[in-house]
TrEMBL record:
<protein>
    <submittedName>
        <fullName>Peroxide stress protein YaaA</fullName>
    </submittedName>
</protein>
<dbReference type="GO" id="GO:0033194">
    <property type="term" value="P:response to hydroperoxide"/>
</dbReference>
<dbReference type="Pfam" id="PF03883">
    <property type="entry name" value="H2O2_YaaD"/>
</dbReference>
<dbReference type="InterPro" id="IPR005583">
    <property type="entry name" value="YaaA"/>
</dbReference>
<dbReference type="GO" id="GO:0005829">
    <property type="term" value="C:cytosol"/>
</dbReference>
Length: 259
């Protein structure tokens, strides 16, 4: 089973650590596009700060993130599961998992990244700021760069197993499964049910997904089909309703009564 996670917008910078080594990251087939995206981001952020700030969609109060990006090639790095923060990652709490669950996280989780394409929790990365909808000089939209590179990598990482896709809409544009793989792809939507009415939630969507992934890692089950995944979630205490298979996979609605 491969679980695809979105990155967090905010990231925790490492205080100390080795500088970035692209060749040491998981998924080495992505080294070339990683270098291209990194070089373009460095060139942008080492130029005019105001131009870079606007290109990255940063508000005026966050211009310091341009300077952080300009030093990415020699900034200290930390494990990705320490760098990525926010609601989903707080609920997932990867560093607090028991040893067996952390081993599963190492092989089953992959974070979709604007800068690196895909990273594993143990990959050492610097804190960066590059949104999924950004465009870079000489490259264009970063989504287009990764759309041209990710499919064989995701296929290899998934093997014959299930792909549980928890990405947000922005990062879903980086990779779409072809028809032959879509039957093994599950997208998850979190719904809040109250008074017989179901609504999509936003903030608590992330928290629920984080708790859901943590539960799967702690349980250790490795479901091989959409319905087996739904049954596993039900066993773990979630209400999981399986929808029809669509072009990009089968949607499973996780229904919660408390948020």
């Amino acid at each position: 089973m491969l679980i695809l996670l979105p990155p967090s917008e905010g990231k925790t910078p490492a205080r100390r650590g080795k500088p970035l080594d692209l060749g040491a990251l998981s998924f080495p087939d992505l080294t070339t596009p990683r270098q291209q995206v990194l070089d373009s981001l460095l060139d942008l952020c080492r130029g005019d700060v105001e131009t870079a700030r606007k290109a990255l969609g940063l508000p005026p109060g966050l211009a310091d993130l341009v300077h952080r990006n300009a030093a990415l090639d020699h900034a200290p790095t930390a494990r990705a599961d320490h760098v990525y923060t926010g609601v989903l990652y707080d609920a997932l709490a990867l560093p607090d998992l028991a040893a067996d669950a952390r081993r599963r996280a190492t092989s089953r989780l992959a974070v979709v990244s604007s800068l690196f394409g895909l990273v594993r929790p143990g990959d050492r990365i610097p804190a960066y700021r590059l949104s999924g909808d950004a465009s870079l000089p000489g490259l264009g939209a970063v989504a287009g760069v990764w759309r041209a590179s990710l499919d064989p990598v995701v296929r290899d990482a998934a093997g014959s197993g299930l792909v549980v896709d928890l990405r947000s809409t922005t990062y879903a544009a980086f990779w779409r499964p072809a028809a032959d793989l879509a039957r093994r792809v599950v997208t998850v939507r979190v719904l809040h049910e109250t008074g017989g009415k179901r609504t999509v939630v936003s903030h608590f969507n992330k928290a629920t997904k984080g708790r859901l992934v943590r539960g799967l890692l702690e349980d250790g089950a490795n479901p091989g089909s959409v319905r087996a995944l739904a049954a596993t979630l039900e066993r773990l205490g979630w209400q999981a309703d399986v929808g029809e298979q669509g072009r990009h996979g089968t949607q499973v609605d996780v229904v919660v009564s408390e948020v």
